[in-house]
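Deviations from the work plan: none for this task. Representative record:
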Amino acid sequence: MAQSCAVNKKMINIRAGERIMNLLAAIQLILIIVGAGFFLVGSVGLLRFPDVYTRIHALTKADNLGLGLIVLGLLPGAESLAAACKMLLIWMLALIASASSGYLVARAARRRGSVPWSTQGETREK
Amino acid sequence: MHLEKIPRINRNSRHGHKLLAVLIRTALLVVIWWVLTENQGGWVFGILSALMIACCSLLLTPPATHRLRVHRLPGFFLFFLVQSLRAGWDVAVRTVRPSLPLQPAILSVPLMLPAGAPTWWLMLVVSLLPGTLSAHLDGRTLELHCLDEGLDVVADVREAERHLALLFGQIPSSVAAS
């Protein structure tokens, strides 16, 4: 009786461990799918949004969040601390690159005299 | 910014300043080497190239007069993470709504942060805040493109300024008060 009780407890422990692993895998999967979803939405925004400025908004913000979620989902599976740091470094560099290139594109559009789209039905001038 | 400062600092401390900058940058680059190689070695080559790149970087970007407060980085990252979550969600919702709820406008916001590194950081951070995009810096005025006039964009920018002022160890009275 006592023995079977101990065995049962062990089984429960193993099951609990498995359950935690499954839970972690499920969370990773969700993070990666949601991240990919944000990438998709960013690209949809590129098609749907009316002018260069609003398109930059869609691309930079949605993609940054998407990449962040994907990196977060992949982190627990990293082979080493250095590999995990590499993924975070990639995210940071992508953040800086998209924010600064977004600014440069917006500035170039301003200089060229591209008028922002507005709800008054005005599109581009010049 | 550096040009204004240099005449006031004597030559010796300027060299000391540069040496410190080279050491800090080399250390950071060595960490990046460790990350890139995933700890597989090649240390002699790695350290030598880190040192060389640090020296080259000194020519391109001389040591700034604004120093980061490293202990304030975690708080700043937290602020930044929350804001990028909000920003991504906000733009995603606008994208998928069939009515495409946009009300774009260009706003001019006078900056309170000092010129140089703090301002550059602010412009990058602002581009990742919900609904705002740095479009042009005209002297001390930042032109922003915002997705929706209805959003309280200025409050978000002021909040980012406050965090960056803390990060760079400067509390201009006007920023601290707001």
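The helical segments of chain B are 2-5, 11-37, 43-60, 73-96, 117-127, 153-167, 173-177.
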